Amino acid sequence: xxxxxxxxxxxxxxxxxxxxxxxxxxxxxxxxxxxxxxxxxxxxxxxxxxxxxxxxxxxxxxxxxxxxxxxxxxxxxxxxxxxxxxxxxxxxxxxxxxxxxxxxxxxxxxxxxxxxxxxxxxxxxxxxxxxxxxxxxxxxxxxxxxxxxxxxxxxxxxxxxxxxxxxxxxxxxxxxxxxxxxxxxxxxxxxxxxxxxxxxxxxxxxxxxxxxxxxxxxxxxxxxxxxxxxxxxxxxxxxxxxxxxxxxxxxxxxxxxxxxxxxxxxxxxxxxxxxxxxxxxxxxxxxxxxxx
Length: 292
Fold this sequence. Notes:
The chain has 292 residues and is an alpha+beta fold. It has a single domain, classed as Lambda Exonuclease, Chain A (Alpha-Beta Complex). The chain is 43% helix and 21% strand. It has ten helices and ten strands. The protein has helices at residues 29-33, 41-53, 58-61, 65-75, 78-104, 111-120, 124-136, 191-200, 245-267, 283-291, and strands spanning 7-10, 13-16, 26-27, 140-150, 155-165, 168-176, 204-208, 213-216, 224-230, 235-239. The strands form two sheets. A seven-stranded mixed sheet has the order 8-7-4-5-6-9-10, sandwiched between helices. A three-stranded antiparallel sheet has the order 1-2-3. Strand 1 and strand 2 form a beta hairpin. Helix 5 (78-104) packs antiparallel against helix 6 (111-120). The radius of gyration is 26 Å and the shape is globular.
């Protein structure tokens, strides 16, 4: 996946500008959704414990406190390491998907290099399964990596793919997923529905980022929203249930307000101020007061 031209990493999360000459002013769709949060304590603990249990140095380290501390220190960042590796893999897979779409759009592409990058990391199976899905579903791309904007709510984002499938216009978000013990790709998180509905509710799409030229969003309710899980063993497409889109849109809007409220609270000043104990009244003054 290429870095969106108008996206910027900021202390408030990823944000978008209207052009390359402007400062970023609205949060990205994913930044808004991240306000929902999720507890990863259990997973982080499991990853650390698993890293210790599978460390080849553990047998020799028993009875050696210094070496055990080294193993524990390495294990403590196992979750971060796994997360970073998964993010890098996801970027490679997304980039391949984008290049396939650009190739079919007869635009400049680098499919061969994208596939080679996957192969170099033992991930070529992701490309194989994606190619099978692309052919089976007879995907006809309309636009890849399309940046959109919603002025009323105040957010922007970059959509993975707009495509025609079976005569219907589809908005598609790709997710790279691991495979479970049964050889099936792991399920998508329901949050993908918020991501898709936010994309559908766009008001403008980018024409020229250098000049800041936008055009009215041409789609909306006619879109079928698809979350597509890409794994080594299969690709599974899931449609967002049309009956629940309103509720997920309302939740997204609430999270957008939460993001802004966080900024307002931070800008208002220090939330906690130091305070000392009350002064001890003079003995004479206390006695006098009590006598009166």
